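ok trying again, last paste got cut off:
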Amino acid sequence: MVEVTATKFADTPGFSLWKAGVYSAGSGLGLIGLYFYDPAQLSNSPAAWLCPFHVLSGLACPACGATRAFHQLLHLNLVEAAHLNVLLVLLIPLLVWVWWGVGRAWWGGTAWTGLRISANQLKLLLAITLSFTVLRNLPLSPFNWLSPF
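nice, full thing came through this time. structure:
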């Protein structure tokens, strides 16, 4: 029998409640800033194309449109967010679950066993990401909706 033991964040070397507070405050301020600032306003600026994959290939990477999609999600525009990056929108429940678990462990002192992904699950996630990248760059009718441009 395999026994899994979970450690509390407070027992982890290098953990401090102050550090957890700084990370939480920084995340909160970032979300507030993203709520009030529309990254789509920057889309015509040369500074908008900082993605090395897009600069070198002219194609959309799996993360292209993610910042604009987060902005739309904060304004509850689910359809527009999905148009900008549908993969991100589909991964939101997983991200919320991880955020909730880490937050409970930081503030409540409960155990966080972490995110356990098997090799097959990782292969599936990579295959989905690669397929999404290829499909969003096809200039065909049903797939051009996946492009954030």
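cool. Confidence is low (pLDDT under 50) at residues 1-5. The CA atoms of residues 21 and 27 lie 10 Å apart.
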